[in-house]
Design a protein that fits this description.
Pfam family, one: 2OG-FeII_Oxy
Strand content: 15-25%
Protein name: Fe2OG dioxygenase domain-containing protein
Keywords: Iron, Metal-binding, Oxidoreductase
Radius of gyration: 18 Å
Bound molecules: 2-oxoglutaric acid, fe (ii) ion
Order of helices and strands: EEEEHEEEEEEHEEH
Number of strands: 12
Number of domains: 1
Family: Belongs to the iron/ascorbate-dependent oxidoreductase family.
Largest sheet: 6 strands, antiparallel
CATH class: Mainly Beta
GO molecular function, one term: metal ion binding
Structural class: alpha+beta
């Protein structure tokens, strides 16, 4: 059975739009007890894998996850207010105890004559699955690009001591299109390896349209969508 990948992911193992991404990563996902979500959740079940060395990685990362989870919840409270609802609109059964994922990603040095296109991408263009994503990137390497509404790629220059926040697909559905997902890609054309810590804050398991008026998007059951995405990203391997 194909399992959403926990632990080390080798170069080319992650796949975006049927292309292998030239990066390696360590993935940590919400631990899920066997049977918690029935058959649908089987591919997500399990605990994270920790190496013997460095021996404090588990403690350090679990602490980091708890801090960024808290920060993401605060951002979601701000978004709930901005949408005209109560600050806790996304909490409790909606995204109070979210599904989360943390990826520590390492992008190799590229040869200098590579063009900046999706084909040379180390992470092909995509949107993230969930609500918000917090990217903590190397301060001195510009590799992440976001696409504006005219389709132009803009470099998301790192700003020291800050996170870059991407909007995910589910927030588009929840806000009925008021928040649009950020199309982004990574191309490291610097002469240094580039590292990022990427935290995904996602719904618990269901989806409701939050705005009034006519719903622009079909109803989505988040778990089903996540499992479908997992098959498309790792299913060929
Ligand atoms: O490394 C980055 O800056 C972004 C990675 C990313 O987009 C992802 O893992 O979904
Ligand atoms: Fe992403």
């Amino acid at each position: 059975m194909i399992v959403l990948s926990r632990g080390y992911q080798k170069l080319g193992e992650n796949v975006t739009k049927e292309k292998r991404d030239m990066h390696e990563a360590v993935n940590c996902l919400t631990p899920i007890a066997p049977g918690k979500y029935g058959d649908l959740g089987k591919t997500l079940e399990g605990d994270n894998l920790w190496p013997e060395y460095p021996s404090n990685l588990k403690v350090v990362l679990e602490n980091y996850i708890s801090l960024v989870k808290d920060l993401s919840r605060k951002i979601m409270r701000g978004i709930a207010l901005a949408l005209g609802g109560p600050a806790d609109a996304f909490e409790r059964g909606i995204a109070g105890d979210p599904y989360w994922a943390l990826r520590l990603v390492s992008y190799p040095v590229s040869s200098s004559d590579e063009k900046r296109t999706d084909d040379t991408g180390m992470m092909g263009s995509h949107t993230d699955y969930g609500l918000v994503t917090l990217v903590n990137q190397d301060d001195d390497i510009c590799a992440l690009e976001v696409q504006n509404r005219s389709g132009v790629w803009i470099r998301a220059n790192p700003i020291p001591e800050t996170f870059l926040c991407n909007i995910g697909d589910m927030l588009q559905v929840w806000s009925n299109g008021i928040y649009q997902p950020t199309v982004h890609r990574v191309i490291n054309s610097s002469h240094q390896r580039r590292v990022s810590a990427v935290f995904f804050y996602e719904p618990v398991e269901l989806c409701v349209e939050k705005t009034g008026g006519v719903a622009k998007y079909d109803k989505v059951v988040y778990g089903e969508r996540l499992v479908r995405k997992a098959f498309c990203c790792f299913g060929h391997l």
